Description:
Elements: H1 2-10, E1 24-30, H2 36-47, E2 52-58, H3 67-75, H4 89-92, E3 100-103, H5 106-110, E4 121-124, H6 137-160, H7 168-181
Parallel strand pairs: 1-2, 1-3, 3-4
Amino acid sequence: MFHVAGLLRRLGIPVSANNGARVYRVLFLCTGNSARSIIAEALLNHHAQGRFRAYSAGSHPKGEVHPLALAVLRERGISTEGLRSKSWDEFAAGAAPMDFIFTVCDKAAGEVCPLWPGRPITAHFGVDDPAAVEGGQLERLRAFELVARKLESRIRLLLSLRPEQLDRLGLKQRLDDIGLRGCGEDT
């Protein structure tokens, strides 16, 4: 199995650390790709235990990750290595197809998206933009922490699903439910 996994990796095909089981590819989208989608990417990669590989991108990326997004992740003990603000164009053409695409801001959910290869399942996991919060450093940090908590609860619900046990429509409905109601999130 070791040789097969190594060959698949060299060919650019994701292989998980969980006995070669399928790795589901997830893309989190936001407009600026500086806070919410970055936080979601890092949280899913941290908690997925090799079942999922998350990425993030924006329709109009800011070009840098918000420092408070990085601070909230580091506070949780989550690696921020390799996180960067990037365009969704990197994933729209020529990239390996995604299994799931989640928008995390209302603006991105309403935009005309590229045609994604592979017919990924889409859902909206909308949360407020913590970077738009005005006030002192403490208020702004609390906004980022709240967004991280909300996204983390949705990601834990995502991880509780077994995509291989659900048909496409059933999976889409479950993901929409997660996006709409979250998990008893504090607001």
